[in-house]
Amino acid sequence: MFNHLLHKNSTPPDIEFGKILGSLVKSKHYHNVVSLSQKMEFEGIKLDLVNCSILINSFCQLGHIPFAFSVLAKILKNGYEPDTITFTTLIKGLCLKGDIHQALHFHDKVIAMGFHLDQVSYGTLINGLCKVGETRAALELLRRVDGKLVQLDAVMYSSIIDSMCKDKHVNDAFDLYSEMAAKRISPNVVTYSALISGFCIVGKLKDAIDLFNKMILENINPNVYTFSILVDGFCKEGRVKEAKNVLAMMMKQGIKPDVVTYSSLMDGYCLVNEVNKAESIFNTMSHRGVTANVQSYSIMINGFCKIKMVDEAMKLFKEMHHKQIFPDVITYSALIDGLCKSGRISYALELVDEMHDRGQQPDIITYNSILDALCKKHHVDKAIALLTKLKGQGIRPDMNTYTILVKGLCRSGKLEDARKVFEDLLVKGYNLDVYAYTVMIQGFCDKGLFDEALALLSKMEENGCIPDAKTYEIIILSLFEKDENDMAEKLLREMIMRGLL
């Protein structure tokens, strides 16, 4: 069609070319738009404003921003007046590349030249700021725009609400939602989904459910994303039955669950140690035509490893390779942890090498599993050598790493070395958790050093870390074993007073 138009004796109107280029953009054939536009110019056909805007959009989608701006220069040179769509497309292109500050600078330049932007332009800018974590700047832009440049809409508010929720500032997000109501701007499914997700993130599932019900009452239909958020929220609290009810409601409304919905449900079953039910969901998913992704496989591999069914996890891992689904760091880490816990350290180390070969950089979580396995096998020297190597590679140990090391040193009878590591952490201001203190206290108790154990118990509280039942039990049992009954009974009464028994 294009070639037929191009070689017509009389030059066809620009609108005919525009239809073809426009349909190519809709089907995301951006390279074709660029090459066909060049053909037109080569044949001496000057692109009109609409076709120039289509070309700008294609360059922006391909990430070729300088070329997009060269088309804008051509528009101005040819005496056309760029419209809001042209400017918005360029702003969107800069935002897609993450050049948000350049997008803001371009906005200022456009306004200074006397051009006007619309709600879509400002929605794009606000969304761009939110995507790079500049939520405060997005809110400032919203305030600057408010009624002066354009009327605010649900898209602008929803972007900021979503960003605030992801940052766990759910109360601030809810205030913005209330502000929308006060300004008679109707929240949409995106607004509600963002807020529901925010409440789930901060563990306020009841508020999330209330908001979901309010949304239904206002005749705003939840989409697959909204339902999936609720399924995930219930599952993370171990309330899998309610999650299944949400899934049933979703399907009753004719909304097909996607891979995210199914994965959340699988994760919920794994969390409550019902891995067989998670496996059933995994199989149901493929029967219903939903393709499993890397996350689905990772959840199942982790679930099998947690219940020591490492061979089943290995089968799934091989299936991934067969289906060309590439494991990520989470997949590898789950399997490596399972192998380490089942004593297959050499195979776990082979997987670490495979990760490097496949361009997947193991993180400290991956290595913690190996360090823990080495320490449990009393290979503390090998664990220390590995830790030194990791530091040399720029991989920073976390609190769990040091706790593993302290525990390993204590078990190997190297209490003084364990004490040095522990005291060094205190001096460096590490925020030690109850488990780290309990490990060191256990080390002292095993050697009968009760004064040191009790002194650390006291220091623990001074540092704002409250001992739990396990901490007390370790000291009390050790005291009873050494016939230190009075001190044991005193601690037992203290434990009761704290409601830990």
Automatic annotation (TrEMBL):
Extent of the PPR repeats: 48-82, 83-117, 118-152, 153-187, 188-222, 223-257, 258-292, 293-327, 328-362, 363-397, 398-432, 433-467, 468-501
Plastid in keyword set: no
UniProt keyword annotations, A-Z: Repeat
Keyword Repeat: yes
PANTHER family referenced in this protein's UniProt entry, alphabetically: OS01G0228400 PROTEIN
Name used for this protein in its record: Pentatricopeptide (PPR) repeat protein
Species annotation: Medicago truncatula (Barrel medic)
